[in-house]
Amino acid sequence: VVGYQGDEELGKALEGADVVIIPAGVPRKPGMTRDDLFNINAGIVKTLCTAIAKYCPHALVNMITNPVNSTVPIAAEVFKKAGTYDEKRLFGVTTLDVVRAKTFYAGKANVPVAGVNAPVVGGHAGITILPLFSQATPKAIFDDDVIETLTKRTQVGGTEFEEAKAGKGSATLSMAYAGALFADACLKGLNGVPDVVECSFVQSSVSELPYFASKVRLGKNGVEEVLGLGPLSDFEQQGLESLKPELKSSIEKGIKFANQ
């Protein structure tokens, strides 16, 4: 393991990398608006992606820095300008939403969380996070109000945690766990392990929006296939339509920032 520090060593740190994980930035604190968060983190992401384009243009990029709904489009625009953009190699890491959805579902269904599968689609903030509990396995039958509660908990899990820590940080351990899970999945794909499927926020034609989180099959080139949403319940269909305006706005905000 080799460590590097500061802007002057960034090139050395990135050279020859197969996977670059970007958790850099500040976490959201109580009282901080999304705009505050955006203005700080967007600049950091732009700087790092400019360096990635120069020193390791073929690396898989795992974007953890929030707001992911905007930072992924920023990264894409930076790479496009540099002539290095490959949509198969840029991922918004939404694994924490999946971890939360699986945990809450398992608790309610009274089954071990390790055996639960629950896709989460859309984006990575508030109402843009849409868990598809109708597709969760093992199958459990819940009333509509239970599904609504589980969905809300998944959407506000981060805020709930920040408030519980009284502004002294965010869900650090679960964020690290989720980031490691997704990075591990990318490495499995690069190493040729078949059928590695994870949810991620990627360039997509699943909806009319240019970026969308859904299940993707990972492989030697990064994204091998973006999988469709599958059958949705009425509640999920409604949630899908509700999230689109906010997600569209966040994507456009990222694109605008990158090009100013």
UniProtKB/TrEMBL annotation:
One of its GO terms (cellular component) is mitochondrial matrix. One of its GO terms (molecular function) is L-malate dehydrogenase (NAD+) activity. This is Malate dehydrogenase. Pfam families: Ldh_1_C (PF02866), Ldh_1_N (PF00056). Its EC number is 1.1.1.37. Keywords: Mitochondrion, NAD, Oxidoreductase, Transit peptide, Tricarboxylic acid cycle. Its main location: mitochondrion. NAD(+) binds at residues 41, 64-66, 175. GO terms for biological process: malate metabolic process; tricarboxylic acid cycle. It is an enzyme of class 1 (oxidoreductase).
